[in-house]
Amino acid sequence: MRIRYAFYENPCVKNIFKGANMTLDFTDEQKHKLENMTKLGRTVTHKIKGGTGRQVMGKVVDEVYIIVGDYKHMIQKIEFQEGAGWGGNRYAYRAGYYTYDAGRKHVKWGQYTPFLTESEYRDLLGKAKAKGWNIF
User: What are the boundaries of each domain within the chain?
Assistant: First the structure.
């Protein structure tokens, strides 16, 4: 079964795709694969500026997400590794996304800042609030 996902009427999206068909066809398998991508339990590292190597920041202990088009937008709750945090905080939060590559064969972690409408961001933050995350 194929599922059709329509992009929101957004002039920026139309410019990116230069008039391409704004509807995406996904199989149930592709949708399932996107929804099941996660970094739960994974270590988060940061590149050391001006140097070599990476610094371990902590581990992803929880996630909330919404699906918009062919993007799985998420907020990750990261528990700092001992000595990695600052300001007396135990947790940090990172926004990110997964999406398919251009050929829609592989799901990739997004390397750019997520871009959501206010209602989409409200939905995503509502999921974090419903989980009791202490950020409100």
Answer: 2-130
